[in-house]
Amino acid sequence: MMTRIRRRMRALALLAPLALATLLGGCADSAGSIEPLQGSWTLANGSDADGAFIDPTRPVTLEVEGSEFSGNSPCNVYSGTIVARGGGIDLGEGIATTEQACADPEQQALEGRYYAALSDIERAERSSGELVLTGPGVELVFAAD
Predict the structure, then answer these.
(1) Nearest CA to 68 among 86, 88, 91?
(2) What's the domain range around 82?
(3) Residue 7: inside a domain, yes or no?
(4) Considering the domain boundaries, does residue 120 fall inside one?
(5) Which mean pLDDT values do the consecutive 10-residue runs of the chain (145 residues) have?
(6) Three-state DSSP class for 4?
(7) What is the pTM of this model?
């Protein structure tokens, strides 16, 4: 009985690296959809179901390095992790922000819409110095810094 258990344990120990390599290989393939986001960006245009939103006096930035992102919104600094899912991306899992209130209620509203838009992003395309992030009813167009 003990010998049979040892054989199974040994077989599992031999298969574990193969399983891990398979899982990591899947992550590497999915990470390809994160590649277009890499770099430093400034929001040039944004829209959601309520229409366009952008305030040129308070630039919104996005910095992407690997699967991590961060930036400045109208009143706060934010950060998070990009997750590749089924050929798309998800930025909305756990966006962290500082908690400074905006002095201007309009800025506060714009910031809330921006964070909500980030949460809805599903796709990223990069072309001609622009990064376009889209999702249901959302489009964020960033210019390269």
Answers:
(1) 91
(2) 31-144
(3) no
(4) yes
(5) 45 37 32 75 94 87 95 95 88 86 90 93 91 95 95
(6) helix
(7) 0.74
User: What pLDDT is recorded for position 127?
Assistant: 87
pLDDT of residue 13: 40
Q: Give the three-class secondary structure for 39.
A: strand
Instruction: Please report the pLDDT score of residue 94 as a whole number.
Output: 78
Look at the chain and report how many structural domains it folds into.
1
CA distance 69 to 131: 14
Mind giving me the DSSP string for 86-135? TTEEE--TT-EE--PPPSSHHHHHHHHHHHHHHHH--EEEEETTEEEEEE
Rounded Cα distance, 144 and 1, in Å: 65
Residue 23, token pair as written in the block: 């899982």
CB atoms under 10 Å from CB of 12, counted, come to 10
* Per-residue pLDDT, 139: 97
The answer to the question of residue 35 being in a domain is: yes
Written as six digits, the tokens of 65 are 């390095």
Q: Looking at residue 125, which CATH number applies to its domain?
A: 2.40.128.270
Look at the block and give the residue holding tokens 């077989």.
Answer: 11
